[in-house]
Amino acid sequence: MAIDRDMMTDESIAVRRPRRWDEPMDPHMTDADVGWLREQSPFSNLDPAAFPKSIPLDGILRNDCRLHRFAHGEVIAREGDYANSAFLLVDGHAELLTRELPPELLGRRETEKVSWPKAVWQLLRPSGVREARRPEEVVPNVDLHASAHHADDRPPVLQLQDFDGLVRAGQSVRLSPGELFGEVAAMYRSPRSATVVSQGDSTLLEIRLQGLKMLRRDPAFSQRMDDHYRENWLPLHLREIPLLRFLPEQNLQRVVAATIQRSFGRLEWNADYKKTRKLSPAEQIESEPVVATEGHQVTDLIIVRSGFGRVCQSYGVAQRTTAYLGKGHLFGLEEIALGVTNEDGPINLPLQHSLRAVGFLDTLHIPVECFATDILPHVRRNELPASAAKALLRMPASEEARERRSEKRPKVDLPIVSTAMNHTSEETWQDLPSPTGTSFEPTGLLEFIVQNRFNNGREAMIIDLHRCTRCDDCVKACASVHDGNPKFARVGVNHDRLQFVQACMHCTDPVCMIGCPTGALHREESTGHVRVSESICIGCGTCAKGCPYGNIEMAAVNDPKGRPYTDEASNRPITKATKCDMCSGLPSGPACAAACPHDAIVRIDLSESPPLEDWLRRRT
Question: Which positions fall inside the Cyclic nucleotide-binding domain (predicted)?
């Protein structure tokens, strides 16, 4: 409709700008609650002057925190859940379970594989009812309820069966008032590492990530969190790095003491994704935070703890992407190793590439000196780049090094990945490599994958358009096994002959899980697939809003006869989160790929380069 410009005026409309705390985390928090919290540790020791006037300490406690009261045996935090908050035990006790619990005890149901005859029968005789669910798939199969305290707005809570038996068996660790837990999962977007259950009646303060960041303004609180991570979690994270797997304990402790933690970009990268993906590759690279700069002297070995990094190199007046890094990858290893193992003595080599944060990047930095003295003597030659390994042979070996190299090492099976420094090389390390990046040829495909954040996908759906005849058998097959409601459409962005279809990719960094109030959205341990436990899904839509790719939908569910489920209190339809489940119950695997008559579809891991490179090579 055309706008009549004669009717336009210069008069403006005044509106109130939305404020951060328009929606507090706990609308029931009172002045008395805030005053009581200020008297408890650690808040009684915080300095109110350390906080800005616009975001005072009392405001953080009132708006970024929620008080919870748990009864005996209620689950406070559940292993495997992704969340954006931490818990502080204020009163009472809790038990951190050291034993991994069966999924069914945590409200999760393992997918049962159907037999081939039943799968064929379902394909030939579909139910005809969209989003059909059995009653046990709609209501919880565990004791799930809301406590009396703020029952109207508190998410349902799990009651763990035989909790006392686990405690008596010594399979738990007692937590006391004043202890903080869950901050690592909140700050570094990782799954919770253990289940925590209330021992008797307990009171806990849940602190969402935004408030946790502000509380770190107090030096004492920040130091407490850093000390807790460095003491309890950093040694475990370093042990996960292949390069450090044979490090003696005393060396590891010195490395822990020297390691620096840093973060770049926004943790909530999905909020900026739709805007940045529209930029040109050059503009996108320019907008990303710089971690290390090409041509500068290397000072640290950089380890990616979470998020993604872009490795790029000067190409004329622009930057060209040569690789990307994910969790556990290293940056600067070749320059450091060559410098340290130089036969004429240590030298400082400039970085051959730059490293930038793609959305969010969390890193650990080990100084060069620490690497040379505490790590290099315990690294096997075939864990280093080839040039550095040759130089290491020429270095005089100490008695300790000779003994170490003569030891028989246990075999460790890890994937072979290419190096960021030489991504066109055909050489592969036959032992355990240091994972230093993921690269693709040609460069245009790499730029495309990073720009669209497809490197986040572990089960991306790709269609070879040179083979696809647009018959839509893939969509029909998906609909046949999902009650006539396909979980994807044959649409998506294209690069040359490849179409990246809009379907759940079961991401490495599943931001959809963050904020799920019941933990219904979770990663299946055996397969790594992101699944929905529908029996405890309350249909809030948080996951659908959080998915940066728009691959989750909310759907009203019906019983097998087509009768809609409704809420007995409000009479509103029961909705559940739906998305691609990789046809986990079928013996054939994903029906879309199995049904394609032209072998045009593949479900593939884009967090590493070999799967896609091998698939493309077989088609050329």
Answer: 70-99, 175-215, 243-371
- Topology at the third CATH level for domain 249-391: Jelly Rolls (2.60.120)
Kindly report whether the peptide bond that precedes residue 235 is cis, defined as omega within 30 degrees of 0: no
With contact defined as beta carbons under 8 Å apart, do 322 and 422 qualify?
no
Burial class (CB in 10 A: 0-12, 13-18, 19+), 574: buried
d(CA 497, CA 468): 10
CATH superfamily name and code, 31-105+156-240 = Jelly Rolls (2.60.120.10)
Helix (H) or strand (E) holding 531: strand 530-532
- Write the Ramachandran bin of 139: left for phi over 0, alpha for psi from -120 to 50, otherwise beta: beta
What is the spatial distance between Cα 385 and Cα 418, in angstroms, rounded to a whole number? 10
Residue 616, both tokens: 């493309």
The pLDDT tens digits for 320-375 are 888 888 888 899 988 888 877 665 555 677 999 999 999 889 899 999 999 989 99
Instruction: Reduce the DSSP state of residue 4 to 3 states and report it.
Output: coil
Q: What is the 3-state secondary structure (H, E, C) of 326-370?
A: CCCCEECHHHHHHHHCCCCCCCCCECCCEEEEEEEEEEEEEEHHH
Task: Report the predicted TM-score, pTM, of the whole model to 2 decimal places.
Answer: 0.71
Alpha carbon of 615 to those of 504, 603, 610: distances in Å?
20, 11, 8
Reduced to 3 states (helix: H, G, I; strand: E, B; else coil), residue 304 is: strand
Q: What is the largest CA-CA distance in the chain?
A: 90
Q: What are all long-range contacts of 312-318, with beta carbons under 8 Å and residues at least 24 apart?
A: 312/285, 312/353, 312/354, 312/356, 313/352, 313/353, 313/354, 318/282, 318/285
Confidence at residue 4, expressed as pLDDT on a 0 to 100 scale: 47
Distance in Å from the first CA to the final CA of the chain: 50
Residue 141 burial by CB count (10 A; 0-12/13-18/19+): exposed, middle or buried? middle
pLDDT in tens, 183-231: 888 776 677 888 999 999 999 999 987 788 889 888 888 888 888 888 8
The answer to whether residues 121 and 203 touch, using CB atoms and an 8 Å cutoff, is no
- Domain ranges in the chain with CATH number 2.60.120.10: 31-105+156-240, 249-391
- Residue among 86, 107, 117 nearest 205 (CA): 86
Sequence-ordered list of residues with C-beta below 8 angstroms from that of 416, at least 6 positions apart, any chain: 428, 429, 433, 610
Is pLDDT of 54 > 50?
A: yes
3-state SS string over 445-464? HHHHHHHCCHHHCCCEEEEE
The residue written with tokens 């990945």 in the block is 417
What is the C-alpha separation between 542 and 514, in angstroms, rounded?
8
Cα 55 to the center of its chain, rounded Å? 29
Q: Which of 557, 589, 558 is nearest to 576 (CA)?
A: 557
Q: Map residue 301 onto helix, strand or coil.
A: strand
Neighbours of 620 (CB within 10 A): 4
Residues 128, 526: Cα–Cα separation, whole Å: 32
The whole-angstrom distance between residue 102's C-alpha and the CA centroid of its chain comes to: 22
User: Which one-letter DSSP state was computed for residue 82?
Assistant: -
Instruction: Count CB neighbours of 368 within 10 A.
Output: 19
CB atoms within 10 A of CB 344: 5
AA identity, residue 561: K
